[in-house]
Amino acid sequence: MSDIAYLNGEFLPLDQARVSVLDRGFIFGDGVYEVIPVYSRRPFRLPEHLARLRRSLNAIRLANPLADAEWTRLIHDLIARNGGEDQSIYLQVTRGVAKRDHAFPADAKPTVFMMASPLVAPSRELIEKGASAITATDFRWLRCDVKATSLLANCLLRQHALDAGADEVVMFRDGSLTEGSASNVFVVKRGVLLAPPKNQLVLPGITYDVVLELAAAKNVPSEVRKIPEDEVRNADELWLSSSSKEVLAITTLDGRPVGSGRPGAVFKLIHQAFQDFKRKVMRQAA
Ligand code: PMP
């Protein structure tokens, strides 16, 4: 795959892309982003990613610099120029370059940046063994529904997990499940799939929606509601979902096995349904 990026109207090699040190993305983390998986050179759920980008931009009071049709054209162009079959498209919009001042600049032009990298799906071993997680208090801000580039808390939380030899954190706020550092989290108890509601405390994951749709299609009962900590600790199955991890079982939590300690039957059903669904969507787009 070539390393071609897009920056403010231009395609160029990633290592030649430059932004000013006064960019508010660099100075304040004042920007929003998206990560879009690409299968067989086709972006997955692109309209949904662009809709979430619009909501993030609205939330930070930044006008969308491009119409959806332009985003779509540029993203397809970037995929073609990079040339890999399965890619991960990263895009970010910041409030642009201005003299350092917390107040919004009157006339800054947003910085629009995109890059592509190979999409690395979880290994067969990880899918069959499951991931490990530790619990943590969710100390992020109260607008976790905004896909903001200011990810300091998420970075600290992910490193906290890695330092403990785990793959991800499972976070609680005021005694209820929120999500992971870069993933949504699901619980299965007695055959029922439980998901925390989409509110300002979690990122509305694109994969989260896919998981709930597949559960409905496979007649797995689901409940979207507040999930107290003890329900997570006594789960039969625990999963995480994200654009890069798809759906993955969490088989140890704080060093203890989740359920049987192996990916569960409901996970296997939905994981397979996800693979079938991806293939079907890609065929339809062809
Ligand atoms: N929550 C957080 C905090 C995330 O960063 C992500 C994705 N990076 C997700 C959930 C999952 O979202 P999606 O399924 O759209 O990738």
Secondary-structure map with pairings?
Blueprint (H helix, E strand, L loop, with lengths): L3 E4 L2 E4 L10 H5 L2 E9 L2 E2 L2 H14 L8 H15 L4 E8 L16 E8 L5 H6 L1 E7 L14 H12 L4 E6 L2 E2 L6 E6 L2 E4 L10 H12 L4 E3 L4 H5 L3 E6 L3 E8 L2 E2 L7 H21 L1
Parallel strand pairs: 7-8, 7-14, 11-12
Antiparallel strand pairs: 1-2, 1-6, 3-4, 3-5, 5-6, 8-9, 10-11, 10-13, 13-14, 14-15
Helix pairs in contact: 6-8
Task: Give an account of the 3D structure.
With 286 residues, the protein is of the alpha+beta class. It has two domains: 4-118, 2-Layer Sandwich (D-amino Acid Aminotransferase, Chain A, domain 1), CATH 3.30.470.10; 124-283, Alpha-Beta Barrel (D-amino Acid Aminotransferase, Chain A, domain 2), CATH 3.20.10. Helix content is 31%, strand content 28%. The chain has helices at 24-28, 46-59, 68-82, 124-129, 152-163, 206-217, 229-233, 265-285; strands at residues 4-7, 10-13, 31-39, 42-43, 87-94, 111-118, 131-137, 168-173, 176-177, 184-189, 192-195, 222-224, 237-242, 246-253, 256-257. Strands 7, 8, 9, 10, 11, 12, 13, 14 and 15 form a nine-stranded mixed β-sheet that branches. A hairpin with a 2-residue loop joins β1 and β2 (10-13). α6 (206-217) crosses α8 (265-285). The radius of gyration is 19 Å and the shape is globular. It starts with a strand and ends with a helix. The mean pLDDT is 97. 4'-deoxy-4'-aminopyridoxal-5'-phosphate (PMP) is lined by residues 35, 154, 179, 182-184, 203, 205-208, 241-243.
